[in-house]
Amino acid sequence: MRSVFSNSRNYHHLTEEAAMTTADSIGSPTRLQGKLFAMVVCFILGLGSLVAWSSMLTISDYYYKLFPKYHPARVLTLVYQPFALGTIAILAHTEAKSDTRQRNITGYILFFLSTLALLVLDLATSGKGGIGNYIGICVIVAAFGVADAHVEGGMVGDLSLMCPDFMQSFLAGLAAAGALSSALRLITKAAFEKSANGLRKGVMLFLAISTFFEFLCIFLYAYIFPKLPIVKYYRTKAASEGSKTVSADLAAAGIQTEGSKGGEDDDQQQQILSKKQLLFQNIDYALDLYALVLIAMYNVWDLISRYIPVVECLKIKSRKGLMLAVLSRFLLIPAFYFTAKYGSQGWMIALVSFLGLTNGYLTVCVLTEAPKGYKGPEQNALGNLMVLFLLGGIFSGVALDWLWLIGSHEQF
Which residues cross the membrane (predicted)? Predict the structure, then answer.
């Protein structure tokens, strides 16, 4: 029997036939080898999905030094979001016909090239400011937005076909990106603090590390993840339910799928819910995400909270319960107002910590519960719709962020 998966140390061997036999015999892939390793890979892929953009935000002190009059933190964010939102809207509309493997690999490659371009641009210009360099950075940031739409929507749709643990690990990786970026930035900044032109040297090292992470994600997704037995199980199952988006991934794993006969395929396609039907059936989840992402918090509490749903008794599974929990977060708006006006710094720290705690926890609960009960193609489509609303909420928050100019004496 032919082995279809072996990790770097050749610890795990499982033949394709044995994997499918195991899955059929127990009705669940929980015993298939590779689940823990797959969760680690999903965490790293989640990290790579946001580390590039987190890097941009983390080195804002450097860009404010180069471009003090151009408000880089706000302008670059405003450049990023329309490209991310527009791209995910197009991809969500065409997801049923798209190649998920090609989409995700394209996204990670674009992340890699864009992060590398930031490094090359700074080296080529010797760290000088000016409108030309600023426009170049804006173009790269727009590429980040396109890459984000490819990867985040594609990965959420892909992982929606699989066990919730993979989705949870991916989302935890997203949260960890901010914490890791902050930690690396502090380390690199401290390492060159006393040297000549130390701020720029720290940024260069930081961008080099981020570029390496993106390259690692390309390798893991293209060559390691599709060959894991448990991943092949879920993708084979999705293909049997009519999913066309997993064909390239199965081919990369050495599994060829045969198309159904015309009549059977047409009947199966008619049984698959349309995006409009999926949206109406899950509009409460979409609104949940919209409310959640108005204020995005990627900090330590956000990261910790994404592991709370791993404990089943602590996970909210009820739609009504999730809706109530999300709507109750609107009370944070007056809470922040009165805390900022009358409260002490300690109360504000506690309130922000609670914001991050609820953000990560509810995000994992919604994205892992929403796909349950649907067929493979529907789960993929629903995952893309959820990310569309996620990015829509982020874009709204970014746009509203400019309200700070109202009543301000500062000029743009």
Answer: 36-63, 75-93, 105-124, 131-150, 170-192, 204-224, 322-340, 346-370, 382-405
Give the separation between CA 292 and CA 278, rounded to whole angstroms. Answer: 20
**Segment 314-322 mean pLDDT:** 87
- How many Cα neighbours within 13 Å face the side chain of 279? 10
Closest C-alpha to 140, from 106, 182, 183, 111? 111
List pLDDT tens digits, range 40-69: 999 999 999 888 888 887 788 888 888 888
Determine if residue 326 is left, alpha or beta; phi over 0 gives left, psi from -120 to 50 gives alpha, anything else beta.
alpha
CA atoms within 13 A on the CB side of 264: 7
Residue 367: name the closest of 385, 391, 393 by CA: 385
Confidence of residue 256 (pLDDT cuts 50, 70, 90): low
Residue-level pLDDT at 96: 67
What DSSP line would sit under 38-58, residue for residue? HHHHHHHHHHHHHHHHHHHHH
| Euclidean distance between CA atoms 149 and 157, whole angstroms | 12
Residue 354 is encoded by which pair of tokens?
Answer: 């609670």
From CA 175, how far away is CA 349, in angstroms rounded?
A: 19
Do 370 and 322 form a contact (C-beta atoms < 8 A)? no
Q: Which residues contact 208 (CB under 8 A, 6 or more apart)?
A: 119
Tokens read off for 350:
């506690």
Secondary structure tally for the chain: helices H, strands E: 18, 0
Buried b (16+ CB within 10 A) or exposed e, 234-270: bbbbbbebbbbbbbbbbebbebeeeeeeeeeeeeeee
Task: Give mean pLDDT, residues 6-16.
Answer: 38
Q: Is 15 helix (H, G, I), strand (E, B) or coil?
A: strand
Helix/strand/coil for 3? strand
- Chain-centroid distance, C-alpha 73: 21
Looking at residue 94, the DSSP 8-state letter turns out to be: S
Q: Residues 402, 54, 224, 13: is their CA dihedral positive or negative?
A: negative
pTM over 0.70: no
Can you tell me the distance from the alpha carbon of 53 to that of 178, in angstroms, rounded to the nearest whole number?
Answer: 9
Beta bridge partners of 15: 3
CB atoms within 10 A of CB 386: 26
pLDDT in tens, 348-387: 777 777 878 888 888 888 888 888 878 777 788 887 888 7
